[in-house]
Amino acid sequence: MTGATHFVRSADALTIMTTLAGARIVAADGVIHNGWVTIQGSQIVDIGPAATAPVEACANESVIDLQGAWLLPGFIDLHMHGGGGHDASRSPADMSAAVAFHQRHGTTRTLISLVAAPVDDLCEQLRWVAELSSAQIVGAHLEGPFLAHARCGAQNPAHLLAPDLATLRRLIEAAHGHLSTITIAPELPGALELITAAITAGVVVAIGHSNATYDQATAAYAAGAMLTTHLFNAMAPLHHREPGIVGAAFESQAALEVINDGLHVHPSITAMVNRTTDRLVLITDAIAAAGAPDGEYSLGGQAVRVTHGEARLVSTTALAGSTLTMDDAFRRAVHECAIPIERAVAAASTNPARVLGLSHHAGAIAVGCDADLVVMDDELRVLQVAKGGRWIDSPIITVRG
Ligand SMILES: [Zn+2]
What we know:
Blueprint: E1 17-27, E2 30-40, E3 43-49, E4 61-65, E5 70-73, E6 75-77, E7 82-83, E8 86-87, H1 92-103, E9 107-115, H2 119-132, E10 137-143, H3 165-174, E11 179-184, H4 191-200, E12 204-207, H5 214-222, E13 227-228, H6 244-251, E14 255-259, H7 267-276, E15 280-283, E16 295-299, E17 302-307, E18 310-313, H8 326-335, H9 341-355, E19 373-376, E20 382-387, E21 390-391, E22 399-400
Parallel strand pairs: 1-4, 1-5, 6-9, 9-10, 10-11, 11-12, 12-13, 13-14, 14-15
Antiparallel strand pairs: 1-2, 2-3, 4-22, 5-19, 7-8, 16-17, 17-18, 19-20, 20-21
The structure holds zinc ion.
């Protein structure tokens, strides 16, 4: 937490009824420059501009003056492998610690991404996700094992498998209803059948780590794939005679993940995805090294070296995830990609909520939504995060009245 020296400490929980006033709210239908939000329990129950604010706080109601700070919906990360030094696939404790690390950076809901590994290991990791699942940990993202060797990126090729319905069933059963998304390479034999089976089981299918042609990718989107795993990375580049996954993705209705760290894609590409679609989804693809020192790490059993925050496989020098956090991805979207703040909020919160089927209560500041909130200063640095109406960590905000 930085830039909060003008704030003082308050009680750690939002009381029965709390109004956050003096905020620049990025609400579902635009920015309210001097607005207020009333929270009861874990939910947002009212919202409006200053002119309509409740005149006086009543009993059991506190008013917190945000002094012009930004108020955004909590970020939702569809693609996270670790953070704060913790590899989420190592143990349930590491899983929880990685989630807690990202929460301090504004991520109030997340998937746990699991890279290709022996199926028994994946089943165990999926059981951990099921046991830890909460309002914070929505479910798992299986990034493998049904991926293309030619585009494995930092995935361990030894653990990649051809599409197999029995294996998919094992994985789904191990996750106990908490397998949210799975990345599949649609050009593999039997992939379309696998995609249909996953969708039938309630799993959102993503296309990625794939050498698919435009026609193969189009067929997968037509079969119901609704997400694209880190668009542009681990797939063929757009070519005017073979548009590949990228060309098919722009024509589809699928959400488009982008790792907006200034390294995986050029800022102008993130800006272009925002300009040409309303389906941009900012993700981190963070590994354990996010928020941790440079040095040696591992991903899916492969050695990774992190230099100046850039994570690469030691063996092939392929990019191996990122050291990004959602607040950084969001800040770069606004500052480096010149994406309007309400569109950046859509990409970091609203669009991923839609992918997960959570739009009725998450991903926006609106009446009836959970009070998952991020308070940011003028430079878009995180000042405070609330999850379900409760501040996390030490609160740093002035109480008035
Ligand atoms: Zn990943």
